[in-house]
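Appendix C reproduces, verbatim, an entry submitted by the partner laboratory led by Prof. M.T., so that reviewers can inspect both the input and the predicted structure.
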Amino acid sequence: MVQERTDPSAAAEGGQEPAAASVSGPGGEGRRLTAARVAAGAAGGLLLYTAFPPLDWWLCAPAGIALIAASLYGSRPRRAAWIGYLAAAVFLFPTLAWVRPIGDDAWLMLVALESFFYAAMAAAAALVFRLRLWPLWFACLWVAMEWLRSAVPFGGFPWARVAFSQGESLFTSYAALGGAPLVSFAVTLCGALLARAALQRPSRAPLRAVPAALAVAVPLLALAVPRPGDEGRTVNVGIVQGNVPGRGMHVMGDEPAVVLRNHADETKRLAQAVREGRLPKPDIVVLPENSTDIDPYRDPSANAIISDSVRDVGVPTLVGAVVSIGDTQRATRSLVWDPATGPGAYYDKQHLVPFGEYTPMKDIVLALSERANLVGRQSVAGDRPGDLKMGPVTVGAVNCYEVAYDGTVRGTVRAGGTPLVVQTNNATYALSNLPPQQLAMSKLRAVEHNRAVVTSATTGISAYVTPDGKVAWRTRELVADMTVVQVPVRTRETVATRVGAAPEWALMVMGAAAVGAAAWRGRRRGDRMGTD
């Protein structure tokens, strides 16, 4: 039997379920249309990748999403799911290529797992395409998908959220209103509106102007988002990047304390530059995560090396250390080191890297993988935000991987942290696309919370980001470097800081309600057809 060809957009205009063209029997779809869907989905995934650092072609994000939405429109949930999976894989393989130093198998498994979230979203989107305002509901579902993959499994993996491609774009200001979720929503809505305009039937071409105009309006409206201004207070922050000897999985090298000595020596060079008048005197100094590869609490020589360099620079210094907790555990710690009294207040990393700092399903994984034993001692998570008093300010300590987590950064700002200080160790992923992606997150967080962000990395990229999201200073990778930057101290909160996750939850509820409404409408329509 050959079904009648039906224009999907025509069905949607009447509030009915879009029906796909078919020459292959009931429930089928023409091969050329399926091939077009596959091509559009793959092209959309590739375009979305180019929006992320290091390419930073941010306009490609809404364009890529437009192609993905068009590839799914009018498809049934099962077909939408595998097309969504394909588009996600094309997007994630290059975007997450920084995982390859750990192993190509880890890279493949991560992409395979994360793509399932996009497949589930695509299946749900196939339902909401039946509704008149489907670009809105599609954007809500995208936010829900990013929330879910940021939460599960093993604490989630928030990397490659659409918002993190918009570190410096027309959409960035939405971060000050609703955080990263609202930025993702705005970009996805823009893309879906572009798809809606392109899918308009030729006989109703003039109506394309409406969704097209709305797509242009979405980024332009971000210019109206209120942003707190300067408060006239500054602090001088010294930033140290000491570099490390190794690469890949063996970044710390074979010689004990070499990483510690590199960072202590660079701190001394900073102190010398201050004495010679080449740099202004800092009020505080920040060293990166893992700036000491030996526990300074247990090793007297490590303690002495750090104390000597901190006394030389003469101001409180934030040291990144991996410290022992009992005989079998450890903590990744941001430790305030005073030039007179030594180690004091500290913050322990809350969001740990699965399979990097701890091993989920430990007994099974360690038995199956020899490489998993490289984790060594299992890390334990901290349970409090990173507000640390240092000299004239209370910094907001955020540790590496944590900058991707909305709640962790927001909690630190709410606790009084300003400026934000991101200590990171990207040495395993040097010269990959991870360091620039992480810097883009810092740019978004600066705008989201009206806070300057200072990043200190072992091998790069160390940087200073203004509260407007602009990079005012940065290092190259794989070099030792240091500087002193004058950083504004801001205490006023943005709307995003105050309302927290409320916009994200509102958008997710709207998306879930749209799926329910579309399913109910489809069921009623099916019941009517059965009665007839």
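The chain has two domains: 30-227+500-530, 234-493. Additional entries are available on request from the coordinating office.
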